[in-house]
Amino acid sequence: MEVSLFLCLWILLILGGGCLGCLEEEKTGLLRIKASWTDHSYDILSEWGGKIDCCLWMRVTCDENTGRVIEIDLSNLLDGMALLNATLFLPFEELRSLNLGYNYFSEFQGTLKLSKLQHLVLDGNSFTTMPSLQGLIKLEELSLWDNKLTGNIPQTIGALSSLRMLKLGNNYLNGSLLPQVWCKLRNLEELDLSNNRFEGNLPPCLGNLTSLHYLDLSSNGFNGVIPASLFPNLNLLKFISLSHNYFKGSFSFTPFLNNSQLVVFDLVNYNKSLKVEIETPTWFPPFQLEVFRLSNCSLSTSTKDVLGFLLNQHELGMLDLSRSGLTGKVPTWLLVNNTALEFLSIGSNSLTGPLDLHSNSTNLNLVLFDISSNLIQGEVPPYIGSALPSLHVLNMSGNALQGSIPPSMDKMEELCSLDMSFNNLSGPLPKSLFMGSSNLRVLILSNNNLDGSIPKESNLIGLGYLFLENNNISGDISEGLLNSSSLELLDVSNNSVSGVIPDWIGNFSMLTSLVLSRNYLEGEIPKGFCKLNKLLFLDISENKIGPASIPPCANLSTMKYLHLHSNELTGPVPSALSEARSLITLDLTDNKLSGTIPPWISSLSNLRVLLLKGNRIQDSIPAYLCQLEKLRIMDLSRNNLSGLLPSCFNQITTFRRKAAEDKFGNVDYAWAANLSSSTYSYDGELSYFRYLFGVGDAESGEGDVVEFISKSRSESYAGSILHFMSGMDLSGNKLTGPIPPEIGYLSGIHTINLSHNHFSGPIPETFSNLREVESLDISYNALTGKIPPQLIQLNNLAIFSVAYNNLSGKTPERKAQFNTFDQTSYEGNPLLCGLPLERRCAPIGPPPATPPKATEKGEVRSWKAIFLWSFVGSYGVTFLGITAFLYLSSYYTQLLFDFIEAHVSFLRLTT
Q1: DSSP-derived secondary structure for 419-431
Q2: Distances in Å between the alpha carbon of 258 and those of 284, 512, 827?
Q3: Three-state secondary structure along 81-99?
Q4: Rounded distance, CA 866 to CA 871, Å?
């Protein structure tokens, strides 16, 4: 018995070596790793040290013969930022695979001296620089995907001649691809440089990497021509993604004549400068594509030939030909030719005619169907629901579809997103649609001619986003919506909805955006509004809401955009707004609000747009408005404001600097089917690109629309344009005193309107600093003095008016922008002269005589002598003439003495 047991142990030692266990130095090394990460890691390595043989520990693999550690998987361990010390791995001389992915490593200290390492995975960390790779001569896989790497790729990578997989996607790498790096990697099979900042041309030597079967260069800044020599020798390629770059020139499919492996071709260009040529129908490609994306390119091949090429592709799972210039009828035959097709996007083309679906055919695989932004006419096929029952996303927006929405839509039980906006659809909202798919998340029917009321019954329990704006919907806000308790956005603006805002609106606890503007709603905002704790965007403007406004109980701590203009609100500015510290836009225009601008408004530190135009607000403009440092647009026009204009507006930093430094957001909340491809995973077998549909949110503010008078007309500013607009309108008040010269230091402002007030004094010369101003209106005041000639330096000025003041002097020189202004800019100033006015300035007389120079003393003395002698001579002649006259006429002599006696008393003679 003992002999047989000994024999078994001896055989195990010889054959497997499993009883040897790991080396003590490697066990100690593993424990050192555990100890160094104790403060940052989850308790995953708790069992390390509990067993004698470290080869039995989790995440450790040993060689069966030698017992040496050959694989360590330490991914997803850390919960906080940490440094990675390369010396921790010195004991593992036989290590072949090291996975440190998805931790919080920020820096790689030291050099990995692992000469036998073949696989190094550092994905999902925070490395900013590439670790030293010297000595890793056998490295076959290097993955640093999703880090924060910057700069160019080090040339040392070119020395890794054994490298088969290189994944550096989702970083901040830049520069061009150096040939001396890439031409040496002849064994490379997979290359992922996507989502970086590379630029320049693609090196032609990439075509020498004949082992490549995966190439992803998408989402960079590559430009220039795609080299013709890039693909002819890459006959093993299965996956190609060149999307989201700036290629130009021409590109042909000819290089793929000998490629029978190609399965994914992805090219969505950022500009239309790339011409793509697909071979004629006589060419039968040796490959069968499963993913084909060719978007935003200029097809030099006719639509007929493009579709002929696709006629031979029977395994397509995804086809995207959007923005490619397709014409003719909608190629619905693709659904018959490719029964496995899941995603079909042919939007933003010039396809015409009706949507001709075969009534007797059913496609059970199609998940996404996008024919938006074409010229498709006619009615929606009545059997569309039964023909495409598996659809998740259907986008038919931006066409010329007519008729009613077919009831068969309720057959699409998996439908998540439906967009039929911007068509000519009519008729009532179909009850079948509202009783259809409980999975429907997004419903967009805006900008049609739909009428009737919102159905009283609804089964849309998963509905999150409902867009019904710009139709002819009437009636009240239906209680049928109550079943959609997950509603996040409701937009029924610009319809004929009447009645009151129901109190049950507060039951939508997830609601972030509520848009009810331009209807016939009346009454007050209900107290149910106080339950909406997540509301970010509220627009109930252009109704008859009032007289009370926001209930005092309202929780506005999350509110960012508030539009209540053109209602019947009365009383002071609602005090409930004092808690809206996140507010970005406040629009109370054209109501009947009174009182003063409240002091608490200075606490709204995030406010960028303040619109109080057309109310009855009085008193002076308070200086605490200057504390709103982020303010971009301020409209206080048409109120009863009086007193002096504060001189502190130059403290508002956004008025002093160029625009676009403050962000309103960059996602349009009104675009609910934002389709984009998700990640592609390659594990030796192909998996499809998957579309994800998503919805922007009100927090971004891209859906925010602001009306503001600029360039003498009311303009609507929406979305990204708000990044660049700034202005101040104080017109139509009773403001007095001089215009503060500090206004001239608002060098980043675009519009200033101070017209129809009582300002006096001169136009500040500092106005010449308003380098960004496009509209300057200071008409209808009592300004005096001259127009500063320095104003001709305002090169962006498009609207200028100083009309109806008391200005004098000459109009500015007609140069640059001032050459475009006519007499209406200056009329009503009687003392102004010069073009373009008809009143010419008075001619200027000759200059006074030049006084004599100091060197002409002799001439000066001569001139004085002549003057003196002429004066004496004239005086003497006059005296002698009078004396002679009196001597010869006794009568006049007596009169002279009588006059002297009467008026000069001291000469009288006494008797």
Answers
A1: E--SS--EEEPPH
A2: 11, 55, 78
A3: CEEEEHHHHCCCCCCCEEE
A4: 9
The SS3 of residue 561 is: strand
Q: Which of 157, 150, 109 is nearest to 133 (CA)?
A: 157
d(CA 391, CA 342): 9
Phi, psi of 414 (to 5 degrees): -100, 5
Residue that is written with structure tokens 């109009």 in the block:
811
> How many residues are recorded in the chain?
911
Contact 241, 191 (CB under 8 A): no
Which value, to the nearest 10 degrees, does the dihedral of the CA atoms of residues 192, 193, 196, 199 take? -150
Dist CA 639 CA 426 (whole Å): 43
Taking phi over 0 as left and psi of -120 to 50 as alpha, with beta for the rest, 29 belongs to alpha
DSSP string, 234-279: -TT--EEE--SSEEEEEEESGGGTT-----EEEEE-SSTTEEEEPP
pLDDT tens-digit profile of 214-253?
999 999 999 999 998 899 999 999 999 999 999 999 988 8
Across 646-675, b (16+ Cβ under 10 Å) vs e yields beebbbbebbbbebeebebbebbbbbbbeb
Preceding omega of 255 cis (within 30 degrees of 0)? no
pLDDT at 788: 95
Q: Are 834 and 810 in contact (CB under 8 A)?
A: yes
**HSE of 36, CA atoms in CB hemisphere, 13 A:** 17
Taking the C-alpha atoms of residue 355 and residue 358, their distance in angstroms, rounded to an integer, is 10
The H or E element spanning position 727 is strand 727-729
Mean pLDDT of 413-435: 94
Q: How distant, in Å, are the alpha carbons of 848, 854, 859, 860 from that of 851?
A: 9, 9, 12, 10
pLDDT in tens, 627-679: 999 999 999 999 999 999 999 998 888 887 765 444 444 333 332 233 222 22
Q: What pLDDT sits at residue 343? A: 94
CB-CB contact of 554 with 574 (8 Å): no
Alpha-carbon distances of 503 from 468, 469, 479, 628, rounded to whole Å: 21, 21, 11, 34
Q: Which tokens in the block code for residue 542?
A: 């252009």
